[in-house]
Amino acid sequence: MKKVIIIVVGVSVLIGLGVLAMRLADQEKTSDNLSLIDFAVKDTAAVDKITVYDSFNDVSFTVVRNQSGAWVDDKGNCVKQEVVHTMLETFLKVTLKGYVPDGAMENMKKQMMSKYKKVDIYQKGKLKKTWFVGHSTSDHYGTHMLLETPKRRSDNPVIMGMKGFYGILEPRFTADPKIYQCSKLFSFNREDIREIRVENNVNPSDNFEIIQDKDGLKATSNGEPIEGLIKDNLMFYLNGFRNIHFNRPNYAYTEQQVDSIKALKPDYTLFVKGKDKEFFMTYYRRPDPEADHNDSILWDQDYLWGIMPSGELVRMQYYTLGPLVFGKDIFTRENIVPKNQE
Description:
alpha+beta
């Protein structure tokens, strides 16, 4: 009888342990599901590396925070800080908007497998979280996303949004290096400029050269002193060489088309020599993309192409480049300097 009791007790204990194990497993599963909707990164100041992989284009881009706190690419090159700040803002303000309906779950998983952005977020050198960012909801107010941590990965995507933002989160993450590319070309303080040469092949009479040395400023055009030179206007012109940027990288022309442009004689060239650096760039007018060119070429009045020292083609604005290339009009005309900038 005692043996029977012992066996019954033993079986009961085993059953009880089995039920307890199942309950603990269910609790752990529930806990995992809850923890894997916690996309937010509360301490974005500790984020020191971000890698974005675009599965559709099979390309990735990495940014890291350097010792001074600025963001650079993995080779130490300059990147646009606002692009990274947009991602950091998303890390901080992301919030759950809802769950994917059971009936749509399998289809949603297939869509995310075919096209997604994978965002690896590092803090203090260690991988903290990985976001898989998919496509938007039909109303464009939510984004399908899946979370992975170093310990576990969610089985099911959820719908995420962002506090104070109504739109799609996916465009806030990009692996396109051109989006990150710094647009700054050069910056010279007026007092550091030693020489400026502008060659205008459209109107050669507008060529000019400016020399600044211990004897002061000299301005010539095609070897002859420029008549009617206004010193205040010339000083104003030299102030315009600070913080010059291009408008945007080339998205329009193929490599072969870029080579064709480089083979042409430049419409304008600009050379600037400073106290400890110099800069040279060539520029080409571009046909107006919205004009009918059947009878004649109409030139774009807003933009032109520039070939950077690296050989890369970029788009320039006349608003930025015009005052530098057509500077002869500035320092030989009366009343052109605004009173608050004299």
